[in-house]
TrEMBL record:
Transmembrane segment boundaries: none
GO biological process: siderophore biosynthetic process
Classification via InterPro entries: DHB_DH (IPR003560), NAD(P)-bd_dom_sf (IPR036291), SDR_fam (IPR002347)
Keywords for this protein: Oxidoreductase
Protein name as catalogued: Uncharacterized protein
Keyword Oxidoreductase tagged: yes
Family classification: Belongs to the short-chain dehydrogenases/reductases (SDR) family.
A single GO molecular function term of this UniProt record: 2,3-dihydro-2,3-dihydroxybenzoate dehydrogenase activity
Presence of keyword Transcription regulation: no
Length: 79
């Protein structure tokens, strides 16, 4: 439909401010889904598309790790 995939840039992320004790289950799921699962699912789809034609993936992190559970979700990706 749009041609081949040359590059994927994963730079989306969300942050919910507050301590671990203040974090709701919904906040945790939303943050983890955006910051970890989003990277995984988009990267997997991009790798499938780039497997034969080549390309690259760029993962960008922020300095938003001032929030406990935000740090946890990014630690899952090795940032």
């Amino acid at each position: 439909m749009f041609g081949k995939v040359d590059v994927l840039v994963n730079s989306a992320g969300i942050i919910r401010r507050g301590s671990t004790l203040e974090t709701t289950d919904d906040d945790w799921r939303l943050t983890f889904d955006a910051n970890v699962n989003g990277v995984f699912y988009f990267s997997r789809a991009a790798v499938k598309a780039m497997r034969t034609t080549g390309g690259g993936i760029v993962n960008i992190a922020s300095n938003g790790q001032t929030c406990d559970f935000f740090r946890l979700s990014h630690a899952a990706l090795g940032y």
